[in-house]
């Protein structure tokens, strides 16, 4: 805490193809620090020990000919077989959460260090622009696709859910090359957007284009930092 300003750790989640990554980028552009769980997964999948673990549990097809994890193969397997989905989550989620906790700890220490430095050099009333800057730096947004499913919402001060209509989700997945049948399977495998919205502290809707999305992100950002 610095001059009454809290460091806030925000969980960002939603359903498949709701636009979570776009929202994360918008938060970053507004001044928030960010962590992308999918980026953490990509780094984990580049480790030989993780590749071996996946090949052992899901067969040789889990690794493609070029030696990389075949994410398409894994996606098809876990969205068509509940046991495989639970197994992958049990193997990967603890590793991802450990890295997220590590990065959150680093963020807290860095924010506290910077706040301490500002406090010594800016005694008395700080300028409004300086306060804004400090507030922006005190916000960390962590994108976690399966936040509620993994039961880790208590790690975060507030949770923001990105919501879209089912039609929009299927449409976006179609543009990514996912056929409707597979898109339906993926949606059925996750908690519904409706349930996530009921649990959320904030909701950002992504149905009407970029402008609506930017407006929604800015509104939530301002509520979080002021």
Task: Characterise the protein shown here.
The chain is an alpha/beta fold. Helix 1 (20-30) crosses helix 10 and helix 7 (166-175) crosses helix 8 (180-188). It has 10 helices and 5 strands, in the order E-H-E-H-H-H-H-H-E-E-H-H-H-E-H.
Entry keywords:
single chain, 226 residues, alpha/beta, 5-stranded parallel beta sheet, 5 strands, 59% helix, 12% strand
Number of helices: 10
- The proportion of residues in beta strands is 5-15%
What does the average pLDDT come to?
88
- Strand order, main sheet: write it out: 2-3-1-4-5
Order of helix and strand elements from N to C terminus: EHEHHHHHEEHHHEH
The tally of beta strands, per DSSP, is: 5
Derived from helix and strand composition plus strand pairing, the structural class reads alpha/beta
Stretches with pLDDT under 50, minimum 5 residues:
1-5, 119-127
Cα-atom Rg, whole angstroms? 19 Å
> What is the assembly state of the chains in this entry?
single chain
The span between the termini is 14 Å
Q: Helical residue percent?
A: 55-70%
Query: Tell me, what's the shape?
Result: globular
For the biggest sheet, the summary is:
5 strands, parallel
